[in-house]
C-alpha cells in the first residue's frame, strides 16, 4: 500500500513531464544500473503511454535524433548522470536542464530517477521473475542491447 502510493505520487503528471517521458527516464535509469526487469517494464509502459516504435527503438540515439526535443534530451542526460554512481550531474547538465524545465518539473524527473533507483536494486536483489508481456517488450525493443537475452530475469 505504501509503495503503491509512492509510485502514484512519483508517476502522476502534475507538470510538463509526460507519462511517456517519465517511463523513458525510468528506462534510462534502469539501463544505467543494469536492471533488466525494470528496463522491460519501463519500455513497455512507454509504449502504453504513447511512445512510438521509432522513439522506443532509438532511445539510445536521443542525443543525435530529431525524434526527441531539446527539453527531452536535457532530461535524459540528467537522468543518465543522476543515476550513475558516483553521481555525474555537473554544472553543464544542470544548466541545460534548467533551460527547459521548471524546478517542479525537475523534482518530478529526479523523483522518477530515485524511484527506479530503488526498484532496480529491489528487483535485482530479489531476483524478481519477469512477466511474459515484459519479456516480449524486451525482445522487441531491447534486443539491440548487448546481452539482453542473457538477463538473469528471463
Rg calculated over all Cα atoms: 15 Å
Helix-strand sequence? HHHHHHHH
Structural class: mainly alpha
Strand content: under 5%
Give a quick account of the main beta sheet: strands, pairing sense, barrel closure.
none
- Can you give the helix content as a percent range? 55-70%
Mean pLDDT: 89
If you had to describe this structure to a student in words, what would you say it looks like?
- The chain is mostly helical and 154 residues long.
- Helix content is 65%, strand content 0%.
- The protein is built from 8 helices and no strands.
- It has helices at residues 2-11, 19-33, 36-48, 53-57, 70-82, 91-100, 103-126, 132-141.
- The chain is globular.
Features:
154 residues; 8 helices; 0% strand; disordered C terminus
Quick rundown:
With 154 residues, the chain is an all-alpha fold. It contains eight helices and no strands. The protein has helices at 2-11, 19-33, 36-48, 53-57, 70-82, 91-100, 103-126, 132-141.
Amino acid at each position: 500500500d505504501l509503495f503503491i502510493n509512492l509510485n502514484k505520487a512519483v508517476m502522476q503528471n502534475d507538470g510538463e513531464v509526460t507519462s511517456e517521458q517519465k517511463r523513458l527516464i525510468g528506462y534510462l535509469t534502469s539501463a544505467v544500473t543494469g536492471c533488466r526487469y525494470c528496463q522491460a517494464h519501463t519500455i513497455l509502459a512507454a509504449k502504453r503511454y504513447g511512445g512510438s516504435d521509432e522513439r522506443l527503438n532509438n532511445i539510445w540515439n536521443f542525443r543525435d535524433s530529431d525524434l526527441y526535443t531539446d527539453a527531452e534530451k536535457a532530461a535524459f542526460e540528467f537522468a543518465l548522470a543522476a543515476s550513475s554512481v558516483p553521481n555525474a550531474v555537473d554544472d553543464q547538465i544542470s544548466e541545460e536542464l534548467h533551460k527547459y524545465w521548471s524546478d517542479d518539473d525537475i523534482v518530478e524527473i529526479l523523483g522518477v530517477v530515485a524511484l527506479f533507483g530503488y526498484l532496480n536494486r529491489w528487483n535485482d536483489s530479489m531476483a524478481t521473475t519477469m512477466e511474459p508481456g515484459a519479456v516480449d517488450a524486451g525482445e522487441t525493443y531491447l534486443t539491440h542491447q548487448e546481452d539482453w537475452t542473457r538477463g538473469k530475469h528471463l
